[in-house]
Amino acid sequence: MVDVTHFESAWRLSEMILACAFMQQSVEHLTAVHKAERLAFALRFILSAMLLVGLFAPYVCLALFMLGIWALRRFNGPYNGGSDRMNMLILSCLCVMHFLPSLRMQEYVFGYLALQLVLSYFMAGKVKVMNPEWRSGRALQNVFAFSAYPVSTQLRALAGRPRILWVMSWAVICFELFFPLAILSQTTLIAALCLAALFHLANAVLFGLNRFFWIWLAAFPALIWLQERVFMLG
Prior knowledge:
Blueprint (H helix, E strand, L loop, with lengths): L3 H24 L7 H19 L3 H18 L7 H17 L4 H27 L2 H5 L1 H9 L6 H4 L5 H17 L7 H22 L3 H7 L2 H14 L1
């Protein structure tokens, strides 16, 4: 038997975290040079605040989706790379779910979002393990030594510690490659998601990749729900 209450709670939590992500991103554009950009992201901030409190969620999601399409045209694609693509993936799924006629179809879309989250980690690990610079630790060494990100002087000293960077590189690679196995139990999944959140938080604090933190967290409720739906409820 489907736990409708749990499903709706997970769906709602994803919307709330997504709203927080969009509000954070919108603030970055409120001082833009172009007036149209300032107005568009001010509207996005307002719509996101409405989504956060649950006002007219179906139509707010649709309006946010249209603004997302406008932003893709305005900046000639996902100018922040993976975070912008995840923006549109999560928003598209949540938007579609509001207009589907049955619970089962909504579950399929939410499950699809959860599987995309799993793939996002696995494919990142696959790319890294095929890259000799990641396998040797050289990729992280270059990040700390030459990156334009706001890395502190103390952290830049890690560029001279190749053994530590090799261990860090393989820790990231193994975590990402084996992430799909975490779904086999609720305990391992919660632990893996906590590690993933800490990983994104560290990237935000150390390298300024703040967009990745909230937006990846917005998909976590879908995966927690799917794990329980498949392995516990049947």
